[in-house]
Design brief:
The complex is a heterodimer of chains A (423) and B (347). With 423 residues, chain A is α/β, with parallel strands linked by helices. Chain A has 18 helices and 12 strands. Chain A folds into 2 domains: 200 residues, 3-Layer(aba) Sandwich (D-Maltodextrin-Binding Protein, domain 2); 202 residues, D-Maltodextrin-Binding Protein, domain 2 (3-Layer(aba) Sandwich), CATH 3.40.190. In chain A, α2 links the parallel β1 and β2. In chain A, α9 packs antiparallel against α10 and α17 packs antiparallel against α18. In chain B, 69% of the residues lie in helices and 2% in strands. Chain B contains 14 helices and 2 strands, in the order αββααααααααααααα. Chain B has 2 domains: 58 residues, no CATH class; 266 residues, MetI-like (MetI-like fold). In chain B, α2 packs across α13, α4 packs across α7 and α10 runs antiparallel to α13. In chain B, β1 and β2 form a beta hairpin. Chains A and B meet through α1, α3, α11, α17 and α18 of A and α1 of B. Chain A: It comes from Microbacterium betulae.
């Protein structure tokens, strides 16, 4: 082979390499137009995170009814991964036909509600009022399909309660915690008798209290009131003065927190439905867990997700049909049985599949029935502005600083005020 | 592989034909000669332009804007983002933490790496085994290291505090006190990088001619004296490399502090917030890419400055004798090149 041929070959290879790079940069933007024929083969993509209870068997049921549809289900490991992916691609291309959105970053997403396909009018009114209200944009469009909710109850260790001389029966315990003051009083009594912490974390109390206030950090029109709002200050003071002395940790999910769940360091937790799985998974050998059908100060919701359909997707109409099916009451109950995600529709609460469900780990507690009671007790739908997460995170840090003894109550509050003034 | 441009003399060609006119194929081969080298090296530069240069320029542009990542639009606001960052107390805390962690990791790490390399350079049994073991921690993914050390450093349930209490020292609040959190994070960094640096230094040590040591032994120099006067000066270029890479790595530290607690946001009072952690939080937490981009540029300038200071310090600390003789000044090099050209032209 002569040198020129080699050279030409090399030039061709490098030209191909460059061309390939350019092509790689371009691919991904090609989306097919929606087929006119309703029976034409169609691939729908749906991306969720953690566990929505959408098993292959569940999705197969939909495919059996719609043989032309193939469903591709992508699961992100965590909600944070899903969030990064969602905001990078929203307004551009590359999102799935149906995207799952968590409540924590839902308000951020509502700023871009115009990029989403609204839910058809005839579906409005099938979810709980507050679930729907949170997904309605400024123009009155409902833009997201509610999946699950996180109605909170109190999980407690009946064995530790009995040791401390407290009632251990589910119904009696429910009577102990109707107000926050009661909870703190019982907790203090428990701490005094046993010398052990009563609750798992102080910041969970902050979360519970915050979710019972309508206006917290931002008003509905976007005015920031965080540092002047007396309600916020009151919640902070309550948590610092009453919750910190009876709590084992500042926040949840630390290595210590997980470790102590199994060895019975604390006696009670505020727990939404999805927490049941966490407890039974982390402390499989602890026998005493039970659930009381009560939440201090009324009801409270923590967590829950939505499905949204990006308006620039390739198969919007078919995606709407699938999202409708996934959030119907029947499917929601199946998802609840699969993964404990509690239905967000009143219609589902009439089903015996839900009302009859008992959780053997929690001493056969009727978690379906309790969840319905707790969901209906939720009366306040907090205004969560686009910066809710930042404000709340900074306030949690303030509580943590007091808990760790880094700063006192007033100093820590002032640090928070300085910190959030930069937002 | 030079293509010759000399035409074969042909008998029937008219003698008055101007030699300057070149055929197309000749011209092609001239272009070939000139342009091909650039084509050969182009893949790297094309790749660099796409994945290197473009993001750098893009970051620079965004850092002057109030940027909305979702709608891909922004408003030009000049140095506003830079001013915002420099006015944040969090930023200065993060800068202090970054330096603290960097010093707590780099200094012991390099000293230890030098020591390990010197040990591995000696005649010991199962040398390959020891050398491989030195590299083993480097193979473990940083996130895995974070998870493992996290369990060890947990305030209440951690093994390290358990040990400290058992020997009567008492538990250390790893996640509360800034200094102790830095020590814990630096431990993870050291665990991962000491062996790696040791092997680089070992490779450089192996390149030192053994005659030096023999001569030194004959002259009666001890092991320490040999290390100080032969090994260390010969390692100078490698040491500069190791110091600079660990500086860049140290100032960009991210994985370890992010894995240090369950939230990955640097602690309730920013005890272990580092610059990159803060940058990530501003960019992917608040979705404020303008501020994040400005911070990336500030970090770039800081690394550049520290890198230079490092270079100067390392140069002056570690002396070397005699290696500079081979270097020519720019003037001498130019003169030599001209002479070569003249030589070629004469041929």
């Amino acid at each position: 082979m002569n040198t020129r041929a080699i050279r030409r070959g090399a030039a061709a290879v490098s030209a191909l390499a460059i061309g390939g790079l350019v092509l790689a940069g371009c691919s991904g933007s090609g989306g097919d137009a929606e087929p006119a024929d309703p029976d034409a083969p169609l691939e729908l993509t749906i991306s969720t995170f953690n566990d929505f209870g959408y098993t292959d068997e569940l999705l197969q049921e939909y495919t059996d009814e719609h043989p032309n549809v193939t469903i591709v289900h992508n699961k992100a490991a965590t909600s944070n991964d899903a969030r990064a992916n969602f905001f990078q691609k929203l307004g551009n291309t590359g999102l799935a036909d149906i995207e799952a959105v968590e409540v924590d970053w839902f308000t951020e997403m509502m700023q871009y509600a115009d990029l989403l396909e609204p839910v058809p009018d005839d579906l409005e009114g099938r979810w709980l009022d507050w679930k729907e209200a949170a997904a309605t944009d400024a123009d009155g469009n409902l833009v997201a399909y509610g999946t699950d909710i996180g109605p909170q109850a109190v999980c407690y260790r009946s064995d530790l309660f009995a040791e401390a001389g407290l009632p251990s029966d589910r119904e009696e315990v429910a009577g102990l915690f109707t107000t926050w003051d009661d909870l703190f009083a019982v907790g203090q009594e428990y701490v005094d008798t046993t010398g052990k912490p009563f609750l798992d974390s102080a910041n969970t109390v902050l979360q519970g209290l915050m979710n019972q206030i309508e206006v917290t950090y931002e008003e509905a029109d976007g005015t920031i009131v965080a540092t002047e709002n007396p309600d916020v200050r009151e919640v902070y003071d309550t948590v610092v003065e009453n919750a910190i002395p009876i709590s084992a940790y500042a926040g949840q999910w630390s290595d210590d927190w997980y470790a102590s769940m199994a060895n019975g360091e604390f006696a009670a937790m505020l727990c939404p439905g999805w927490m049941h799985g966490v407890i039974s998974g982390e402390a499989p050998d602890v026998a005493g867990w039970d659930i009381a059908d009560v939440f201090p100060g009324g009801g409270g919701n923590w967590g829950g997700s939505y499905l949204v359909i990006p308006a620039n997707g390739a198969n919007v109409a078919a995606a709407q049909e699938l999202a409708d099916w996934l959030t119907s009451s029947d499917t929601q109950i199946k998802a609840f049985v699969n993964a404990g995600t509690f239905p967000s529709q009143p219609e589902a609460y009439d089903s015996t599949d839900l009302t009859g469900f008992v959780n053997p780990y929690f001493n056969d507690a009727p978690t379906g029935e309790i969840g319905i009671e707790r969901a209906e007790a939720v009366t306040v739908s907090p205004v969560k502005g686009p910066k809710y997460f930042q404000f709340h995170d900074a306030l949690q840090n303030a509580v943590t600083r007091v808990f760790d003894g880094i700063e006192d109550e007033e100093t820590s509050w002032q640090t928070w005020v300085t910190e959030v003034s930069a937002f | 592989m030079t293509a010759t441009a000399i035409r074969p003399p042909s008998a029937d060609a008219p003698p008055d034909r101007p030699v300057r006119v070149l055929s197309f194929s000749q011209r092609l081969s001239r272009w070939d000669l000139r342009l091909s080298p650039y084509l050969y090296i182009s893949p790297f530069f094309v790749l660099f332009a796409i994945v290197g240069l473009f993001p750098i320029v893009y970051t620079g542009v965004i850092s002057f804007m109030d940027w909305d990542q979702v709608r891909r639009s922004g408003e030009f606001i000049g140095f506003g983002q830079y001013a915002w960052i420099l006015s944040q107390p969090k930023f200065w805390t993060a800068l202090g933490n970054t330096f603290s962690i960097f010093l707590l990791s780099s200094v012991p790490q390099l000293v230890l790496a030098l020591f390990i390399a010197a040990m591995l350079d000696r005649h010991i049994r199962a040398r390959t085994f020891w050398r491989m073991s030195a590299l083993l921690p480097y193979v473990v993914a940083p996130v895995a290291v974070g998870l493992i050390f996290n369990a060890l450093f947990a305030d209440k349930s951690g093994a390290i505090n358990g040990l400290l209490e058992a020997i009567g020292i008492g538990a250390i609040p790893w996640h509360v006190e800034p200094f102790w959190s830095h020590v814990a994070i630096a431990t993870m960094v050291n665990y991962r990088w000491t062996g790696y640096n040791a092997l680089i230094l070992l490779a450089a040590m192996q390149a030192i001619p053994r005659d030096y040591y023999e001569a030194a032994t004959v002259d009666g120099a001890g092991a320490f004296r040999q290390f100080w006067n032969i090994t260390l000066p010969s390692l100078r270029p490698t040491l500069i490399f190791v110091v600079i890479t660990s500086t860049i790595g140290g100032l960009q530290i991210f994985d370890e502090p992010r894995m240090f607690d369950q939230f990955g946001r640097g602690g309730s009072a920013q005890q272990w917030l580092t610059i990159t952690l803060y940058l990530y939080d501003v960019g992917w937490g608040d979705w404020n890419f303008g501020r994040a981009a400005a911070m990336a540029w500030i970090l770039f300038v800081i690394i550049l400055a520290i890198g230079l200071v490092n270079l100067l310090i390392t140069r002056s600390l570690v002396r070397d004798e005699g290696s500079r003789g081979g270097q020519l000044s720019r003037r001498e090099r130019r003169a030599r090149r001209r002479a070569l050209k003249r030589e070629e032209a004469r041929r």
